[in-house]
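FAQ: What does the model actually see?

It sees only this:
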Amino acid sequence: MTLLPYVSIVVPAYNQENYLDETIQSILHQDYKLIELIVLDDGSQDNTKKILQKYDHQFYYASHTNMGQANTLNKGWYKARGEILSYLSADDLLMPNSVSTAVQYLNEYPDIVLTYCDFNLIDPNSKIIRKVSAPNFDYLEMVKRLICQPGPGVFFRKRAFNRTGGWNPEFRQMPDYDYWLRLGLNGPFKRIPQILASFRIHEKSMTFSKGDRTMASEPVRIIEKYYRSQNNLPKQVVEVFPEAMSNAHLISAQLHLKAGRWGDTLSAIVKAAQYSKPTVMSTRSLRILINALFNRALHRSFWTIRERFSSDTPSTTH
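And it is asked to produce this:
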């Protein structure tokens, strides 16, 4: 008989008063009971503290001076007692069977170090925009094409965390991608082909916001640091360095374009071509840039139409 492991979930909260309560409830209503919930208020200026005070003695929570997502997560994970670690952004959600399903997979596949799942993309009102099927795990693809396969609903072994260390506070745009690159050197990840989480898009979310130049340069800095600091990388990983750098500059171009910095966008595309012209000429690179131009506008239009339709629909009394 396999003993059920303790699972520690860290929620870093920063000015997410509109969504934090729903996030916490999604964890408290899991069908798996061996859960340690740690909610850390990262210097919020809204009503986060009042929301947490409602849950006095139900789980561990604390507030500290703002120090960023990476440092907050690391603080929680180093405090955690569980054999399995996880995190959930304070505006995202877990399905009731998320933890139990992840534990089942981790027990069934002892060689894997992390599980991730498919998820719903939801709007500010928790309405489903679309369902996202995550790519199957391929470490080489994650390196060379900057595909961040894990999304919300990840669970990973603490022993792998102890070998890898925590998130790098240097990164604010893609700290998760940087971490999965490093964690993946300890063993394979496993996709769970079920919708077990929800990822929220809203005006204040990192995915939706316009980052500054430093944040837009992160993809390049992550790949440079990865190749510079990791010893004994697999041969096939070393060989795709030019393609990885080219794609890193393309993602940087996407982030610049999203913020309306046309000159920086063109400069990043030129640098991408210097590493790999075929990569820049591919249809994928075109999709990356089109996404930067229209993604935010399409989501706003979708929300507006849905809200208008909802307000115009007569209520029905049952």
